[in-house]
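User: Can you help me understand a structure? I only have the sequence.
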Amino acid sequence: MAHSESWNKIFADYNIYDHDFDEGPFQITAGQIKKACQNFTEVGQKEVRILCKQDSREDRPKVFIERGLFLLPTKNGEYVIVKGEGYVDIPEIERTQEVYVSKLDFPLDTSLVGNSEMQHLDFAYASSLIRSFMKDESLVLTIRGRKYTPEFSFKVGTHHINVKSVQTEVDAGYEGRSQVVLVEAKSGSTQNVIIRQLYYPFRQWQARTQKNVITLFFQKSGDTYSIWNFQFNNIEDYNSIELAKSGRFRIVTDN
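Assistant: Let's start by predicting it. Here is the structure, written out as tokens:
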């Protein structure tokens, strides 16, 4: 399991094995993690950023998996270890792949160079697939890169968590007349993803606008562009996420 040796040391050093996670999360800082792991020799065993990157259920160390735990940032350099469901499944889209005709009337030569998540997302947007999927021709690119959240709180099960100034990053954000669409993009095939990657940007931008904030998960595999629209039914409930709609597309150019 990922980084299990390091997290075993962290749990031992700070008596986390004895913590009652049914009573509440365990707070831990980047400084504590760094101190506990300072004598490890490999970068991946002691680098805080790497140890705290647990983007899928499978990325968690063994001690997390065995106890049903996951990690959330609450502030710059501060985290909580929480008991509960931290991830959402990315379900297979069973509907037939749709052929989507690009609305561009010319080919994009530069879009064929490379194989990055952002490149595929940009091509889908340039072809108007994102606008068509959202049924909103007014969407324009307005958000990209890293920003910090305002202060907000939410619950995971019965646990209340407060967040302030956590760095987030969306692969793209589009604003239209009545909505803001945030996109988390992945390459290849993803089985599940930590809800935080969708929820924190959702809370961040919903606090900045009166428009409806929509979250999309985007993936390209082979020639297929897949889009999942997730929504949060209760803005203050981390686990209120559910799938609203999804689709599989192959983009073709009519030229």
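Now, to help you interpret it: Helices lie at 4-13, 30-36, 43-46, 48-51, 62-67, 117-126, 129-134, 196-206. The mean pLDDT is 95. Let me know which part you'd like to focus on.
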